[in-house]
Amino acid sequence: MIPLSYYLILSVLLFCLGVAGFLLKTDVISIFISIELMLNGVNLSFVAFSHFLKQINGNIFVFFVMVVAAAEAAVGLAIIVSVVRNRHTLSIDKISLMRD
Fold first, then answer.
1. Is 100 helix (H, G, I), strand (E, B) or coil?
2. What are phi and psi of 91, to 5 degrees?
3. Is residue 21 scored above 60 in pLDDT?
4. pTM for the model
């Protein structure tokens, strides 16, 4: 059986990669993927604790986080498509200039 610490190390690694991508990337799609990576890192820790404590609470939290992530993906991608159609760019630096 794989120890809990391995799952938590992988979870922290996923979360840190998501944070690094969020802070360092300049296009909207990469930032969006980084946020999803952070959510998946947290989900992995919830499932790992749920499995090792033999309780279902972590799995229930993961279900709700996945529902929120799916809604965020749908709304976020719709907003990204709208911005790209209006601004013709995915760069955060150019999108942040909201004056026209």
1. coil
2. -75, 130
3. yes
4. 0.84
